[in-house]
Design a protein that fits this description.
Radius of gyration: 25 Å
Structural class: alpha+beta
Strand order of the largest sheet: 2-1-7-4-5
Number of helices: 15
Shape: globular
Helix content: 25-40%
Largest sheet: 5 strands, mixed
Distance between the termini: 61 Å
């Protein structure tokens, strides 16, 4: 409420303006909208992430974010999900349920409890655009948790009832759009009018994909590209999780609370191992076996453990293997490419001495002896010791690294001599039916723990690097995933409860003054949905040990 008293708002640490005390951030944002290419979605007041519906009553510093920033893009995606939910209810009826399943391409996959066709999906898209044009207010209300549970029980949304049982908050925030109330783990926009760019794509009679602009291409929604192998892997894992009775966080919490987590750990590890054994069997039964097994995936996918375990399974089948580390073929630091900011770009393919790498591969494939290099990451230079390598003509080389699926890395080797593996933790576990868990969040938590344990980095350092890591993945990894011969899912059904015990203290250490604090707080709040799981029952050869420590693979 406007009290007549004026307060000074410092914008982006550049200049300030005065506004009446009690002015909403939405009104304040209009004074700065011309500095942004897209509608402002969220604000940062001092060091708190605050929705635009909130008011300002004292002197403060304010930053705003649109969909070209990760903070704003997260708000855009969550608000879009709410619009999808409302549109499905309008088109198919209030009794039809919708599940937000997992990320795919530049959006997310949804399933509904009714038969779909292309015409119906087009109608849902049309209705979503109408909701956007109506510029409806999205109202946030704070209610007692027990009241929220009673409401969702009345609405027969037992996924939310069960999820809310395991959090300790006295109050929870519900959002109201078009008389539909929902619970989201993250901030939303204040109105539907700012969500104006999206596309729907019919997939099958049960589901469709919603694509929207991402931070790497915020100008427009790209057409959906169907990554069949990736989609099928998600589908396979979804069915497997359902067969285990684990579809969301509350199901996992139930297993933990009933003391049955050890069995779930063993089953999850067996599922992961079965993927590698199947690959070994596939290669064993090939009439013409590959000479190179190339494994790539985004950061913290578990490439090191997976490559070593696969080597073990191949040896079990009588197949001779040897691993080659691409890391030893970095160019000398003085020759390393630089990014647009003039900093060394270690994510670039051209940080690798491709010429030398291919020369050595060809010699080895021809049975010649090769003196392989080592790389000193402190001095930034290659050096040589007595690391001679020579193999038989039936030996398979296992090569893992960020660029292994990119044919330019092994440009002198014929494609029929290569077997390509894409690896990523493709989690199918969601918090509830409308709140998905991002694969990138799993990888980020894994990396925070590993960076702290092996490199002494604090959580602030890892979080500050994450944007650049993701940019590298978008450029150098994801474009090549469809060229893989097979996908390995390194997600473990139980791992969030374990990661929670290791990463929470690291996240709590992030200073409130740090730029990374809001992201740390988001991850802390996200982890509150999961009960802690001790690590004693996790085997030493688990891919999770690569991050939390005590792995048998050194």
């Amino acid at each position: 409420m406007n009290t007549g008293r004026m307060i000074r708002v410092n914008y982006n640490n550049e200049f300030s303006k005065e506004f009446p005390s009690g002015t909403s951030l939405e009104i304040i944002s209009k004074s700065f909208q011309n500095y942004y290419s897209f509608p402002i979605l969220i604000s940062r007041v001092d060091n708190d992430i605050v929705e635009l519906s909130e008011t300002v009553t004292k002197k403060c510093s304010v930053n705003f974010y649109d969909r070209s920033d990760s903070l704003g893009n997260g708000v855009y995606g969550r608000t879009l999900q709410f619009i999808v939910i409302v549109a499905v209810k309008r088109v198919l009826g209030s009794s039809v349920s919708i599940n937000i399943e997992h990320s795919i391409d530049k959006g997310f996959f949804c399933t509904v409890s009714a038969d779909l066709n292309k015409k119906i999906v087009k109608e849902i898209e049309k209705t979503m655009k109408e909701i956007s044009k109506e510029n409806l207010v999205i109202q946030k209300i704070s209610v007692v948790r027990s009241d929220a549970i009673r409401y969702f029980k009345k609405e027969k949304q037992m996924d939310k009832v069960n999820a809310l049982k395991y959090i300790s908050n006295t109050y929870v925030n519900l959002y109201n759009l078009d008389s539909i109330y929902d619970y989201f783990y993250g901030k939303l926009a204040t109105n539907t009018g700012v969500i104006d760019d999206f596309k729907l794509e019919f997939i099958n009679e049960n589901g469709f994909v919603v694509n929207y602009p991402d931070v790497y291409n915020p100008e427009i929604t790209l057409d959906y590209v169907h990554h069949k192998m990736l989609f099928d892997k998600f589908y396979e894992y979804n069915n497997w999780c359902s067969n285990q009775g684990i579809r969301n966080g509350s199901d996992l919490n139930r297993v933990v609370s009933t003391g049955k987590i050890d069995e779930l750990i063993r089953i999850s590890e067996a599922y992961y191992n079965s993927q590698l054994e199947n690959i070994a069997n596939t290669i064993l039964n090939m009439q013409k076996k590959p000479r190179l097994i190339l494994m790539a995936g985004p950061s913290s996918s578990g490439k090191t453990t997976t490559s070593k375990k696969l080597q073990m399974y191949l040896k079990l089948k009588g197949i001779k293997t040897v691993q080659i580390s691409v890391d030893n073929y970095f160019v000398n630091r003085v020759d390393n490419p630089k990014d647009e900011n003039g900093e060394y770009d270690y994510e670039s393919l051209y940080a690798i001495d491709i010429t030398l790498f291919n020369k050595h591969l060809n010699k080895l494939l021809n049975g010649e002896k090769v003196l392989t290099p080592r790389y000193d990451f402190i001095t930034g230079e290659k050096y040589y010791k007595d690391d001679y390598l020579q193999v038989d003509d039936d030996t398979i080389f296992i090569i893992e690294g960020l660029h292994s699926l990119n044919d330019e890395l092994t440009l002198s080797i014929e494609r029929n001599l290569k077997y390509k593996i894409y690896i990523s933790p493709l989690t199918q576990l969601n918090i509830d039916n409308h709140n998905r868990i991002h694969t990138s969040d799993i990888r980020r938590l894994r990396r925070i723990i590993r960076d702290n344990r092996t490199r002494g980095y604090n959580a602030t350092s890892t979080l500050s690097m994450w944007k650049k890591i993701r940019e590298g993945e978008e450029k150098w990894i994801f474009p090549f995933q469809d060229d893989a011969d097979i996908i390995v899912n390194s997600a473990l059904l139980y791992e969030l409860g374990v990661l929670k015990t290791y990463v929470e203290p690291l996240l709590f250490s992030v200073s409130e003054d740090a730029l990374e604090y809001p992201e740390a707080l988001r991850l802390i709040n996200f982890l509150r949905n999961f009960l802690p799981i001790p690590s004693e029952a996790i085997p030493k050869d688990s891919v999770l040990r690569e991050f939390i420590g005590e792995s048998c693979y050194k």
